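Supplementary material to the annual report.
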Amino acid sequence: MTPLAFTREGRLVRVVEVRGGRGLTRRLAEVGFTPGSTLRVVSSSRGPVVVELCYSSASRCSSCGSCWRLALSFGLAMKVMVEEVESVERT
Amino acid sequence: MSAHRGSQATRRFKLALVGNPNVGKSVIYNEITGGDAWVGNWPGTTVEKKVGRAVIGGVEFEVVDLPGIYSLSAYTLDEEVAVRFLVEEKPDLVVVILNAVNLERSLYLLLSVLEVGVRVVAALNMIDLAEGQGYKVRSDVLEELLGIRVIPTVAVKGVGIEELRKAILDTLSEPPSTYKVNYGVDVERAIEGLASKIKGYEPAGAKLNVRWLASRLLEEDKYAVELVERLNPELLKVAEEHRRRIEKTLGRPLDEYVVERRYEEASKIASKALIKAGVKKLSLTSLIDYAVTHKVFGIPIMLTAVYLMFRLAFDVATPLCTLVDYAFSSYLPSLISSLPMPEFASSLIGDGVVAGVGSVLIFLPNIALLFLALALLEDVGYLARAAFVVDKVMHKLKLTGKSIIPLLLGFGCNIPGVMATRAIEDEQDRKTTALATPMISCAARLPVYLVFAGALFTAYRGSVVFSMYLWSVIFAALTAIILRKALFKGVSTGFIIELPPYMAPQAKSVCFKTWLRCKRFLLKAGTVIVAVVVVVWLLSVTGPSGYLGVGALEDPELIEQSWIGVVGHWLEPIFTPMGWDWRASSALLVGFLAKEAVVGAMGVLYGVGEEGLSGAIASSFTPLTAYAYMLFVLLYVPCVATLATIRGEMGFKYALLALAYELALAYSVAALCVGVGHLLGVA
Amino acid sequence: MSKSWLRLALIASSTIYLAYSAVALYNWLMDLAGLEGLTSILNTVTLSGDPGSFIALLTVGLLFTGSVYYVDDYKSTSCLLVGSAIAVALSAINLLVGVALTCDEAILATLGEATSISLASELTRLEVLLGVIGIPLLLYAIRRARSLTRLEV
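Predicted assembly:
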């Protein structure tokens, strides 16, 4: 389990937990960072992180091309704990 | 529905627009209202409020554009404004704009709005993009599942707008939504119990949606807590008991669970309404983003975008500026002086009012093009990326990526810069940025540098002017760091920025945005600056001895006896260490009111006009005292109009703070400059 | 266009842009020092000398280099697409500025504040010329982007 801020570009990761106060976990949950949701790391370089979240949480696709992209500040990305799902590099 | 409220014909219905950011809400707003907009603030906040009038099928509507939001949780200011409006103002109808390219997210917001219990019509926007991405969204399925009208639209092309208008009219006579998200047995039971308790305390005629209030209270929603506390604080305890019990069975925070349930529901509906037609291996957005958000290329691309923007705003605008300048400094004054009027009135109009209006309008071409370029970058989708790319650098300055836009606008004029800080959610970040922005050297300060650099630094004038811009960035950064260390110590809450799919810009939307912002700038800056220039005029033609006559504007002997000259003499001892005479001090006084006026004022004070000013400056300043003077002009108070804007955005206290800080900073930097110069043996 | 030809064209373009950006930087530094830089080629094509041009040219050069450096088709196309788009935009903005400044001179002359009208030097900047060469690259990049983002039914 690593913070989202330290994941590598192109990896597919799953959210394990969001560490933070009530307001913060809520705010992150409402844009899609709930435990179990899968996301792809688009850009990450020890600063803010860009991730891509996809449709249909059950079977998160990796290639629908209709996913939405979010940039998260480094501080927030440190609070989202994730685990890697696959290590194939694709963006 | 509202027969008891008076006759339908005269009644104005309240219509609210709700949607995620980047969903095309402002375009739909435009289509419905025909561009009618009154722009202001939501009471007590800096969140922008847009209200317009629309007539649909003979029925009159007041259309309110709510801020772009992702949920109704009252965690951000935008959300609080929206939820407050929906609950307290009880709009007759809410149009929720769904994004066909991001259906799940849109449905989440739609469900939240439906739960409030209002009449809803949904516009399913950007269906063309969804089809381009390889899927169709079935609006009929959405209608059936949600029990509301769902109209497919392509707002930028005007597709579906007529149908949307018709649906609005039809829905007006229907009962409000009773849609319920099922939160599972435990939570539902708690909601029911709590709702019936709340009902007992509800004041007559309040018409609260108690189910909604109860469910939000269980989630510990800030706004719901506030509402219920007003009814009876005892209810909070009851809710707390329920919550504790449920969280024990769930084994996790209730609000997280509720959000997830709502998401699942949105997801379920989305999957039923989506039909996939094909697969795309790669989206154009991903393709472009690779280079744009790249570790190495990201910052250069951002700087290039800024460079292109500035060339558009400052170079392409040149002929327009020339025309405005001609109109206000030659054509109109000579027209006015030819009119049969007493000298006093003619000077008041010509040298006061017209000069004042001119001094605002001369910057309008630059500002308008800057706004245009920003609207273009925003609509294409680049602005969000720019904020992401610079965040790492801005973070070192204790600012956030979003601070970049106010700072960039500041190079044109500090006023829109300060106004643009409202897009920054975090309060500490917002205030820091707003107070750092006036350090940025605006277009009005450039003429001062040009005159001084031209007079005393002939060969090096380019580098001297450039150094001023460098100092301005350095001092903006220093100011931010100092403020974060001393005043706004809190940790930034961090940002979540959506990076919307890249899209071709739409002329209509870009122009409308630019127009609204220009209008706002003119109203805000215009009123203050015009008033200020008239005051400067008054101070120049009157003195302790009374009215001096309009001759004072051209006669250095006479102006010495005006208030401007007298105060300049008072100020002179303060500036003696820097080697500035009373004339330079007087010009600073004028510049306090509006910086672009410094050059003109000096021309009058030295009795040489603007043409002979170089020579006059060269004889009364040394390069060292001139450089210190330029630094002082850069740093000492932005101008009255910017201070007024800071007061409007942050309150009187901060405007005073900015004034005191900037005066102190300018004085010490100028003194330091002269001191160091003397030590080094520079004259 | 065959692959090797394209590579050659890209290597050449990136070299030109990088070299030109160095010249712009040099010119700017010379200007700061109050000296004359390399302001024109054969007195016909003008060369930039300001920090903004330096960065813009450097960006294009870097992106073209990236499009050669990356083997992955989508990375290379991304760099080429963005790079050539900026190159064309750079050319367009200089043309626009040139037209605007020439108009300005014409206005001043009509108002009697200037005596002669001359074409602004922006119109003959090297960026304008290079941008024209960038157009086929942009078109090629768009074609490649289209095929990469094709919808597979």
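Chain C has one domain: 3-147.
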